[in-house]
Amino acid sequence: MINRKITLLGPEGTNIYVIFQYLIFNVISWFTLFNITSELSFNLENILVRQIIFTILGLFVFFFFTYIPISNIVSLSTVLMVSSTILLLGVLFTEESLGARRRYDLGIFDFQPSEFTKVIFVIFIANALSMKSNNIFTIGLVITNLLLIYIQPDLGTTVILILLVLFLFFLTDVKIKNLAAFSLLIFVLFFVLLEFNLVNTFQIERITDFYSNEVKDFSQQQSRLQISLGGFLGENLSNTSNIDIFVPVQTTDFIFSSYSKSFGFLGCVVLLSFWAIFGLRVYSLITKTDSNFEKFLLSGFIILLYLQIFINLATVLGLIPLTGDPFPLLSLGGSSIIAISSIFGIINRIFIENNLVI
Amino acid sequence: MFNKYRLNFVFLLFSIFLLVIFSDLFALQILDNEENAQQIKNQNFEVFYIPAARGEIYDINGNKLAISDLEPYLFLNLRKINDDNKNIYVQLLQFNFKDITTSEIDEFFKTSDVFTKIINLSEYNADIRLRILNYEAFEVFNLPTRTYPYSELFSHAIGYVGKPNKDEQNDYPNSINNETVGKTGLERYYENTISGIASEVIVQNGNIVEIKPSVPGRDIQLVLNTETQNIVKESLQEGITLANKNFETINLIERGAVVVQKIDTGEIVSMVSLPDFDPNQFVLGISEFDFKQLNRTKAFNNFAIQGLYPPGSVFKVVAYWLALNEGIFPETALNAQDYIDCEGSLSFGFDDGSKQVYQDWKSDGHGKVNLSQAMKQSCNVYFWDIALKIWRTFGNTDSEALLQDYSKQLGFSSLSNIDLPFEKEGVVPDRELFEEWTISRPELVRPEGWLGGDLMNLIIGQGAITTTPVQVSNAYRTLLTGKKSAPFVSPESPNGNIENINISDEFVQFLLNDLNLVTNPGGTAYRSFQIMGDQIFDIGGKTGTAQNSGELNNTSWFVGVDSISNPMYIVVTVVEEGGSGSAVAAPISRRIIQHLRESELTPVEFGEITE
Furthest-apart CA pair in chain A: how many Å? Predict the structure, then answer.
């Protein structure tokens, strides 16, 4: 290993692009939340204050991972996966809130382990694929985690994780035929579970209702209307009279519709372009690095982030049924921000180890 | 191996997704912008809130002390009423519900809300319900009702609920939509836990488009014991009746309080304050006349935590602790065992040459007394001598407030932090307080300020000192365990901090033995406990009779310990204007201790008048 000089911004500096991109996403979230509350009082109940605190915590996490060599992350991948399993097991014994057991109540904020499972999943599978390890233990851990999240119940996260696994398999040299067979197996397994009544019918009904009924979900209908209100420039720039509209969970799942209303089509293009540019920067890094593990890891992170964005957008636009997935770095929520900060921190580290600091 | 071409394919796939999303956003925000804005303006949403069920309250054995029942109520959707169909609905109501008067029906149509509440349907048979729901303006929602199955028994501990006022709406935002807030007692203290989030019915142009279910409040478990509470209330009532029979007082004796506290944990097993009220009266609204009447008798005060009384001789235990800890005894005694002569009065002089004579309650004196005998017979002279010693040694120095410091360490003059609202803290007077009062409340102090006589008053629990029954109970508990912590009614109490106080096992044993002397032959409470036979040798207590100003009868106190060999409970009884502690409060406590020791209950009998 090369000995690296440690500076304030991490070893041999920090990739300026990554840190700025990270901060821009966070600041966009602050503005959006400010537009929703339109008040700034300094207490922990205020969503803007909460989000700013989460960003500051997120920055610590970002730099924490900047200091950890990628080789250490490789060796820790199994430990991380086991701890994720334990946390997911523990969460089943917490008190039920809103029909699910997903979070630990830590007083002023909640800790949602499945957000961290997403990150750990990428690390663990990237390691397994680059080592070509396919023993029972590896597969067992993956399936246990999936099941634990599924019974919370959290169908949205389960689907994201299954898609993530499939995409990562697709990136290996595995024959398309095999992958297709594997996907079919999951599909069949799902219907077997359904047959044995092991699937929460409430969730299935939500899906079948969505595609059979002409009438769309109330909150999604409202969300579409709210997005439409933004126009080209958005409410903030175009000085149109404010029209109030009722949309549930504005600060978390449906934050994108508030964002669109405030910043318009232009704002949407800007935000999504930032994410596209970020994807392309990471893509160039994937082509540059020689390590197979890093290639899988970076691809996994990008696929994970994009999947979350697409699923959130599709929900907000009413293209798919409600899932309850947050928009990365835009939605209010500590666990999500901290988890994504660790992704940015690891990506930053890979940039540095490949001598890319600008 | 990593396959780069497939990665290109994934990125291509994502680009297509992005294009689909952009095209949809473009269609929504640019093409349909104005049309949708117009649609929103026409939406006309209204939200109607249905209160959430409050959490239920259980005693230690799982008996329900407060219940939330959901009952179906008929509502009328006023947005569906117009001039054409109004008559039909009026006739439907008149036909099906004979109890509703015509003027009430007129009122239904006057509100500006979406829905107006008509009647509780649970009393009507299902046929009416089926028949009436064919008409589209009728809607049935379940509303929670609070009931207290034990009526008056827990009125002060549990409190009652009512409509929130402005301040309460600010402090407890959930109460706005629930239209209910805990007014006193546990209902108030645990309002945030016990109240739920109201259900939202979203109505668009008169049609319900979404119903967000309510989130019910959380249940609360208590450490109160219903069986004990019953016995305690009975005993206190019997005692008050007896006091009224035996004393000629200017006021009717009607107020009193009892606290039963577990010694090891500090939990409150029973808490009774009289007079009490039925919290069920508030659920459907109480008449102004009834409310004023209850208010006049001070029925809403929980005297166990809000009654401020001079403690009288039960306070002597503080000086008792101080004497043993500091080695301060009367001038002629060297230690706790040395006797002094009590002649029934004490005359003494101060440095300024003034001379005064204090009379003990027993005018012919207690004879030879040491510390234990002084506790047993509640001899004032012995404790005055201690006060004089403190005054002569430390008076006008920084250490002057020795007795006050000892009392404050036991929790006097500060809140006990029990998990009940509106607790009072009382005062332990000292020089500073008197100086403050000469400015703020000059009617309470003499112009000379703080004098030795005030200290002598304080040591026997008289004068300006005030305490609540729960403070006294917690102070005795601290002395018997060396642990100071907040008493609690529910294990969920947020005040779990325990402070260790330096108290030796030797002292605890010594104190228990001397408390035992009080119920033994020759002790002030012997007559009241006599009926328990040999058991009195395992019971302890301290009587207190605090003088009140003017014509008022004395305040009757008794602090009891259920067992000397295995002390488990402290029982503190106060009867306002109840006269001698040994005559009224002691026999009440005796019956409660009989229950706690699981021995045969005998009626409360009027005891011996001492002090």
Answer: 63
Total number of domains in chain B = 2
Q: What is the token pair recorded at B86?
A: 């109004």
Range of the domain at A158: 6-353
- Please check whether residues B153 and B257 belong to one and the same domain: no
Instruction: Kindly report whether the peptide bond that precedes residue A328 is cis, defined as omega within 30 degrees of 0.
Output: no
User: B221, B245, B260 — which closes off a domain?
Assistant: B221
Per DSSP, which regions of B516-564 are E strands? 540-546, 555-561
At B52-73, the pLDDT tens digits run 999 999 999 999 999 999 999 9
Of the residues B173, B190, B221, which one is the last residue of a structural domain?
A: B221
Residue A208, pLDDT > 80, answer no
pTM of the model: 0.69
Nearest CA in chain A to B23: A265
A329 near B CB under 8 A: no
Residues from chain B contacting residue A283 (CB–CB below 8 Å): 7, 11
d(CA B571, CA A282): 74
Q: What percent of chain B has pLDDT over 90?
A: 59
Percentage helix, strand, coil, to 5, in chain B? 45, 20, 35
**Contact check, Cβ <8 Å, A218/B21:** no
B24 located within any domain = no
Domain-embedded: residue B114: yes
Q: In sequence order, what are the beta bridge partners of B67?
A: B147
Q: What is the mean pLDDT of residues A146-169?
A: 88
Closest A-chain CA to B4: A171
Report pLDDT for A1.
47
What pLDDT, in 10s, does the model give residues B179-197?
Answer: 999 999 999 999 999 999 9
Residues in a beta bridge with B200: B49, B212
Question: In chain B, positions 44-83, which contact chain A (CB-CB < 8 Å)?
Answer: 45
Q: What is the CATH number of the domain that holds B76?
A: 3.90.1310.10
Burial (CB count <10 Å: 0-12, 13-18, 19+), residue B257: buried
Do B43 and A310 make contact, defined as CB atoms within 8 angstroms? no
The B residues from 316 to 375 touching A (CB cutoff 8 Å) are none
Q: How many domains does chain A have?
A: 1
CA B441 to chain centre: 28
Do B288 and B142 belong together in one domain?
no
String of b and e for A173-199 (b: at least 16 CB within 10 Å)? eeeeeeeeeeeeeeeeeeeeeeeeeeb
CA distance A233 to chain B (A): 9
Dihedral sign (CA A183, A184, A187, A193): negative
CB contact residues (below 8 A), chain A span 203-242, against chain B = 218-219, 224-225, 227-232
Q: Is B222 helix (H, G, I), strand (E, B) or coil?
A: coil
- Reduced to 3 states, what is the DSSP secondary structure of residue A164? helix
Q: Tell me whether residue B169 is in a domain.
A: yes
Give the chain B residue nearest A234 (alpha carbons).
Answer: B29
Whether A283 and chain B come into contact, CB under 8 Å, resolves to yes
The answer to whether position A46 is within a domain reads yes
* Greatest alpha-carbon span in chain B: 112
Across B409-437, average pLDDT: 93
* Domain range enclosing B384: 226-596
d(CA B316, CA B331): 18
- Report in angstroms the alpha-carbon separations of B468 from A57, B303, B426, B500, B584: 47, 7, 7, 22, 18
Cβ within 8 Å, pair B2-A171: yes
3-state helix, strand, coil in chain A (%, to 5): 65, 5, 30
| Per-residue tokens: B217 | 């409040």
Confidence band (pLDDT; 50, 70, 90) for B417?
very high
Rounded CA-CA distance A261/A249 in Å is 15
**CA–CA distance from B377 to each of B317, B344, B609, B611 (Å)?**
13, 12, 12, 9
pLDDT tens track for A53-104: 999 999 999 999 988 889 999 899 999 999 999 999 998 888 877 667 888 8
